[in-house]
């Protein structure tokens, strides 16, 4: 079965640089969630989209923005990167009927 | 707002022994409950979920969990563990008050270590 695809899988950036993370949901899934998991931490909700509209917002810094496109893929844009942004970033997708989130493999961002 | 408490940060067990990973939640509304497993350097894999119906739910890899509304618990159990079950286990809850949004709130995780 098709799964959630995230790219890139690994990303290394310098402080103050920008990064773009991409998420391709499971086919027919119309809802995307982004989570951030710091080292040794539980995943924290950042933001979500339903039918290309932002549906909820969590602890996402103002330096970050995201959007969902017409093909339902989503991108998380991160600017002015800080050392503390180093984390594993997960994308999850659902279809409204089941409301069960299926996670991608994550993008490991390292900020040097 | 909901919260999740995983009472044990680490659980060491011997191979073929039974295990229970405890999870309690707090929410003012009805919830969906999930257990996810994370193997080292990997993503989150859904083990099982409770949405409604029977309070005993069975998942993959021989795991099961029981929803107890009065105790607001959703403990995960396996009668006989294998070395390959060594991983971090996360309990998560999504409340049903958010309309079309069901963001997950996770517990801090329980590291299950299965020793030979």
Tell me about this structure.
The complex is a heterodimer of chains A (112) and B (116). Chain A is built from no helices and eleven strands. Chain A has strands at residues 5-7, 10-13, 19-24, 31-37, 44-50, 53-57, 64-68, 74-78, 87-94, 102-103, 107-111. In chain A, the strands form two sheets. In chain A, strands 2, 4, 5, 6, 9, 10 and 11 form a seven-stranded mixed beta sheet that branches. Chain A has a four-stranded antiparallel beta sheet with strand order 1-3-8-7, with no helix packed on it. Chain A is globular. Chain A starts with a strand and ends with a strand. The mean pLDDT of chain A is 93. Chain B is mainly β. In chain B, strands 2, 5, 6, 10, 11 and 12 form a six-stranded mixed beta sheet that branches. In chain B, strands 3-9-8-7 form a four-stranded antiparallel beta sheet, with no helix packed on it.
Sum up the structure in keywords.
heterodimer, A: about 110 residues, mainly beta, seven-stranded mixed beta sheet, about 0% helix, B: about 120 residues, six-stranded mixed beta sheet, four-stranded antiparallel beta sheet, about 55% strand, globular
Number of helices of chain A: 0
Shape of chain A: globular
Q: State the separation between the terminal residues of chain B, measured CA to CA.
A: 41 Å
Strand content of chain B: over 45%
SSE class of chain A: mainly beta
Q: If you average the pLDDT of chain A, what whole number results?
A: 93
Topology:
The complex is a heterodimer of chains A (112) and B (116).
Chain A: E1 5-7, E2 10-13, E3 19-24, E4 31-37, E5 44-50, E6 53-57, E7 64-68, E8 74-78, E9 87-94, E10 102-103, E11 107-111
Parallel strand pairs in A: 2-11
Antiparallel strand pairs in A: 1-3, 3-8, 4-5, 4-9, 5-6, 7-8, 9-10, 9-11
Chain B: E1 3-6, E2 10-14, E3 19-21, E4 23-26, E5 31-38, E6 44-50, E7 56-58, E8 64-68, E9 73-78, E10 87-95, E11 105-106, E12 110-115
